[in-house]
Design a protein that fits this description.
single chain, alpha+beta, 6 strands, disordered N terminus
Length: 173
């Protein structure tokens, strides 16, 4: 501003300088207001997302269900927070793990049929539903019912499988 005032020595120059300074401060104030609005909106979205996650987890707990997503490329499976309760796994291993660890806990008589259903997934038939016995680490056998749907890329390879696993032990009894 000081340099500009030395350059503009006449009244018109000072008027121009005043307009430039005001427009600069107006622009800066508008930018700050926009950033503040975006931060507030982001906070509202984060709160809504957390509330939605809590409702989803409560619903899964009430239905004795585990939500999962499996990435065939890495072999990793992510599960909802309540997986430890239903699958009997320790809290660290329940949230995520290798699908091979899960498959190794399937009852031997049910494992082959389950794997066959997973391998048969294709774009024309992307969904499956299976009931099987699962052997928890404490040795207790539970019945699970799983429904899932595969997502495919343009080449026809599946990218991930998402679904729900429900404890149906009481119903089987």
């Amino acid at each position: 501003s000081a340099l500009k005032s030395l350059i503009f020595l006449n009244a018109k120059g000072y008027l121009l300088l005043g307009v430039l300074v005001l427009s600069y401060w107006w622009f800066l104030a508008a930018l700050i207001a926009k950033v503040a609005r975006e931060i507030d909106e982001r906070k509202r979205i984060d709160i809504a997302l957390k509330e939605s996650e809590i409702r989803l987890q409560q619903t899964l707990n009430a239905g004795e269900m585990v939500a999962f997503a499996w990435d065939p490329k890495t072999g990793l499976s992510r599960r909802s927070e309540n997986a430890a309760d239903i699958l009997g796994l320790d809290a660290g291993a329940a949230g995520s793990g290798l699908v091979q660890d899960f498959l190794s806990r399937l009852h031997p008589a049910d494992r082959k049929c389950f794997i066959t259903q997973i391998k048969a997934l294709c774009p024309e038939s992307p969904s499956y539903s299976a009931s099987f016995r699962f052997i928890r680490p404490d040795g207790r056998e539970v019945w699970l019912e799983e429904t899932g749907k595969a997502e495919f890329d343009v080449t026809g390879r599946y990218v991930r499988v998402k679904g729900l696993t429900c404890d149906i032990t009481e119903r089987k009894r």
